[in-house]
Design a protein that fits this description.
There is one protein chain. By secondary structure, this protein is α+β, with helices and mostly antiparallel strands. It has a six-stranded mixed beta sheet with strand order 2-1-6-5-4-3. A hairpin with a 5-residue loop joins strand 1 and strand 2. The chain starts with a helix and ends with a strand.
Length: 110
């Protein structure tokens, strides 16, 4: 099994079909696009550190909004650094009794 394949299988189940990721550079990726990147050894980012803290959770029935500060150390597939702290906004929805990620927006701090 290729490195990262298990994580991609987990993400496939955890991400809602309508999942959208907005990166710090404004690029928007659908679930299919992001899973394609994660599943590709050539395109997948390399992360040495991915640490969220200052996590705030706001629950609205079957919708949860989370905000956090995430520290990242690593690089994209082209070698461009991703190091820094990011303010992250996440939307999690409950579907058929299971919590699934619906969207993430990342903004680089400082």
């Amino acid at each position: 099994m290729p490195k990262g394949a298990t994580n991609v299988a987990y993400c496939e189940k955890f991400f809602a079909d309508s999942y959208v990721l907005v990166l710090a550079d404004g690029q928007m990726l659908t679930k299919k696009q992001w899973l394609g990147i994660l599943g590709s050894a050539a395109d997948r980012p390399t992360l040495q550190v991915l640490t969220p803290d200052d996590i705030q959770v706001h629950l609205f029935g079957d919708v949860a909004v989370l905000t956090d500060r995430t520290t990242i150390k690593g690089h994209d597939s082209k070698g461009n650094t991703m190091d820094g702290q990011y303010r992250v906004f996440r939307v999690i929805i409950k579907q058929n009794g299971t919590w699934r990620a619906a969207g993430v927006v990342m903004n680089k701090m400082g």
